[in-house]
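Ticket 4471: requesting a sanity check on a complex prediction with adenosine-5'-diphosphate. Repro inputs:
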Amino acid sequence: MAPILRVEDLVKVYPVRGTGQELRAVAGVSFSLGRGETLGIVGESGCGKSTTGRLLVRLEEPTEGRIELDGEDITRIRGRALREVHRRVQLVFQDPFAALNPRLTVAQTLDEVLRVYDLAGDKAGRRRRVQELLGMVGLRSGFADRYPHQMSGGQCQRVGIARALAVEPQVVVLDEPVSALDVSVQSEVMNLLTRLREELGLSYVFISHDLGMVRHISDRIVVMYLGRVVELGPWRAVSDDPLHPYTRALQEAVPVADPGIEAAREIEPLRGEVPDPADPPAGCVFHPRCPLVEDVCTTVDPELAELLPEHQAACHVAARRLQHPSAVGT
Ligand code: ADP
Ligand code: MG
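Returned structure tokens:
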């Protein structure tokens, strides 16, 4: 069966204001999302995760590449067909408060979506559906009459999730959905998302800068760096036994519950910052920050290759270590 969502060589170029320069926020990204799967996307701020998310839900059109939803090319569709894609692929935002209209009650927010997409029948039907949606996201019926400022961040995010689910999507792209919430609320919302995925047969793309968060919910993990996929594989392999030094650095930034292990770790924090995507380094774009850098890394951009079964990485050193034929200089 075809994956529910598939992207191939996705590129998004933005003009840099006032310079005449261009910036590749997404610089050739390929992956697929299986039915019922959660695909995690992780990377530091500025690596192109949110741009990828906006392309997946077709809020923006890619500069190059291809997006398929359930086998159908949706890369450049417009009009009614695009509206239907917007229904089938929903986006949940990081800032739950900002994502809601402050002048609408929860019931009005949900009712508006149902009306726009002509769902749940007449007024009474829509009212029933609003109650059903509140129940699904664990909010009492009384929340229907609340305004965003009368709710906590976690409650607002539950409404954001209810609004996404109101249109019966197939895919939900969650862009840092719990990053703005108190730590105590994060796991509640994560558990809710996991339960909803199972109950409703949803497929998720879960975006976060935090590998520790992504590993708990994902079946597979995509690691992005400067608009590129540098590693992609099963969650346990990527989070516990990463191939790429960048993923290893992200992994080392994840706190460990056991203080003994935490103290014993040789934490080597990532040096420096993500480079300017308008002026990417030559060769491997990670090389200026890489602890394993070799000569070849400064000149040759490593290809993303399957170094272990179902586990890809774009790294000269890892490729040579695993004696992959794409390794340069062997
Ligand atoms: P992430 O979500 O991983 O933090 P983003 O996708 O938001 O990364 O941004 C990736 C890069 O693209 C950043 O350098 C950002 O400044 C740039 N960028 C994102 N959106 C735009 C835009 N609309 N116009 C110009 N540059 C953008
Ligand atoms: Mg982002």
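Notes from triage: The chain has eleven helices and twelve strands. Leaving this open until the requester confirms.
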